[in-house]
Design brief:
Elements: E1 5-10, H1 22-40, H2 49-57, E2 62-71, E3 74-84, E4 91-98, H3 107-121, E5 126-133, E6 141-143, E7 150-152, H4 156-163, E8 167-178, H5 183-197, E9 201-207, H6 215-228, H7 243-255, E10 258-267, E11 272-282, E12 289-296, H8 305-320, E13 326-332, H9 336-345, E14 348-359
Parallel strand pairs: 4-5, 12-13
Antiparallel strand pairs: 1-2, 2-3, 3-4, 5-14, 6-7, 8-13, 8-14, 9-10, 10-11, 11-12
Helix pairs in contact: 5-8, 6-7, 8-9
């Protein structure tokens, strides 16, 4: 008997409980988490359905859509489609996949056929996605064109994407930091960084909403994340950030049950913030802390400001949230300055994510 495969748009419910579409939304998040854990071998990147719902409900800055794949009526796959709502763009970001036990049955092909067709009819000809791949040892590897990092050619996701015409553009390292880090280790790194930075830079930290005086500078740093961070052959739109968007981001995090912890560096001669590091701390302190943006403006690099903001924020986290046991982050393999900082502090690699692109 031939199986029936259908792809359906998933309604974004008003709430998870007692709302139409709530059960389907939860199921899509469960599938997402199962797929990621299967690829990574660890549950540390699982997301909460409420957090995901809050993010999907906010459509001000990105258009976001979610779809599910059914096989004989059962939801066995899910996908997301996003594109920038603030600037004209040629890029669609595509996520999602199929449960491991339901692969090689045509579901993934049907799902991607549908999503790529939607991108094509919308006039956006570039599809990009990040995909976590099994950390297989040995065997053939597909190297990143940057010359840094690789993914296993035998990984099912790698085979699937290459068959569909996607090209690997970049490899990200997924790393975790076990907490707590010895206070003496953090103090030594901070002291050395402050000596290198000299007297023209000063660190500031806070939790929750940013001080009003720094909003424009935080917006500029957020905007520069798109242009200053390594992106290899991926097409990255220059994002529009301002004080309104910063406040909206803070409000969204709070609604999702997370608190921003921020560390910044001020350049005293100009009074401008030139580096920042953010982490998102869940209200459930047993869950991993998610690393947010880390950036040093290009014109201020070479002074160990990256180490300075990283360590200052870990120290702040230890002071205000000592129950936290893990920070998770990802970095482009060619971003050696940031990886050097992470490795020195104690981050260890647990997996890799490929950045893939297809032009249709």
């Amino acid at each position: 008997m031939t199986a029936t495969i259908t792809i359906e748009a998933l309604a974004i419910p008003d709430a998870l409980d007692r709302a139409e579409g709530g059960d389907e939304f939860r199921r899509a998040v469960e599938i997402r988490n199962t797929i990621v854990e299967h690829s990574l071998g660890l549950p540390v990147m699982a997301v909460d359905a409420h957090e995901m719902l809050v993010g999907m409900q906010d459509q001000a800055w990105f258009h976001k859509h979610r779809y599910v794949a059914r096989r004989n009526g059962e939801i066995v796959g899910q996908a997301t489609m996003e594109w920038d709502a603030t600037v004209p763009t040629n890029v669609t970001w595509l996520g999602g996949g199929v449960l491991p036990d339901h692969r090689n049955r045509g579901v993934g092909t049907a799902l991607f056929d549908h999503m790529e067709a939607l991108a094509h009819t919308s006039g956006r000809s570039v599809i990009q996605r990040g995909a976590i791949h099994a950390n297989l040892l040995g065997g053939e590897r597909l190297g990143s064109p940057t010359g840094f990092g690789s993914v296993p050619t035998d990984d099912p996701g790698v085979r699937f994407l290459r068959k569909r015409g996607y090209t690997l553009e970049q490899v990200y390292r997924i790393s975790v930091l076990d907490l707590p880090v010895g206070p003496e280790i953090l103090a030594a790194h901070r002291d050395a960084a402050e000596v290198k930075a000299g007297s023209v830079y000063r660190v500031h930290t806070w939790t929750g909403p940013a001080p009003e005086q720094w909003l424009d500078d935080i917006a500029l740093l957020s905007m520069r994340m798109a242009t200053d961070a390594p992106s290899a052959g991926m097409e990255i739109d220059e994002e529009v950030w301002d004080a309104v968007r910063i406040r909206a981001q803070e409000a969204r995090a709070a609604k999702a049950g997370r608190t921003h912890f921020m560390a910044v560096v001020e350049h005293l001669p100009t009074g401008q913030l030139v580096a920042f590091n953010g982490v998102l701390v869940p209200d459930n302190h047993q869950r991993p802390v998610q690393q947010g943006p880390t950036l040093v403006l290009k014109e201020h690099r070479g002074h160990r400001l990256g180490m300075l903001v990283k360590v200052a924020n870990i120290q702040q986290l230890a002071e205000h949230n000592p129950e936290s046991s893990l920070i998770i982050t990802d970095n482009a393999e060619e971003n050696r300055p940031m990886l050097d900082v992470n490795e020195a502090v104690g981050f260890r690699a647990i997996g890799y994510e490929g950045a893939w692109k297809k032009t249709i």
